[in-house]
Amino acid sequence: MKFLILALCVVAASADPHWFMMPADEVALVQNTWNQVKTNEVDILYAIFKAYPDIQARFPMFAGKDLDSIKGTSGFALHASRIVSFFSQYISLLGSEGTQPAIKTMLNQMGQNHKNRGVPKQQFNEFETAVMSYMKAHVSFGPNVEKAWGDAFDKMYAVIFSNLDGQPMI
Ligand code: HEM
């Protein structure tokens, strides 16, 4: 019986190897800093495309177009709002035990959509670098804030990358 319980624990843990609850102080740092920039939707997407034109090139409606010309369009505003709202939702759900299943569901779905679009991990990593640079330039960003943001991305990418590898997180 003891062996069975142990075996079940090992299976449960291995289904979820990188999943973790972020500490409350880190959640507060991420939420407070994000709240300071989250209405700059167009600016954030612009910064991502500017730093990584290969990400822009993946969007059929933006590929090959001059970034400064599309920045003011409604299509650009719409997509910026989609990405930033998704991110805001993820960040608002962090930090409580009860919201972990909702986080997994939304990230599994997003990971699956982006796997279907063929987005590689390397571009997600570029996205993280661009968002981190944006945060550094717009809020007070000490080592503790950087660590908290790193953890928030790790948690998010654990689920997304699992989907890119063909395995939704259970
Ligand atoms: C890093 C590289 C990424 C690429 C190349 C990429 C690419 C795309 C593309 C091509 C679309 C479809 C746009 C359309 O024609 O409607 C899309 C949709 C979307 N993306 Fe991304 N994406 C990336 C990262 C992200 C990240 C990190 C997030 C969230 C934080 C995100 C959130 C969304 C959302 C919410 C949608 C709309 C819903 C959907 O169709 O899935 N994307 N993305």
Output the helix-strand order: HHHHHHHHH
Total strands: 0
CATH superfamily: Globins
| Biggest β-sheet description | none
Question: How far from one another are the termini?
Answer: 25 Å
Strand content: under 5%
| Uncertain spans | 6-14
What report would you give on this structure?
With 170 residues, this protein is mainly alpha-helical. It has a single domain, classed as Orthogonal Bundle (Globin-like), CATH 1.10.490.10. It is 73% helix and 0% strand. The protein contains nine helices and no strands. Helix 2 packs across helix 9, helix 3 packs across helix 8 and helix 8 runs antiparallel to helix 9. About 5% of the residues have low confidence. Bound molecules: protoporphyrin IX containing FE. Protoporphyrin IX containing FE binds next to helix 6, helix 7 and helix 8. Keywords: Heme, Iron, Metal-binding, Oxygen transport, Signal, Transport. This is Globin. It comes from Polypedilum vanderplanki (Sleeping chironomid midge).
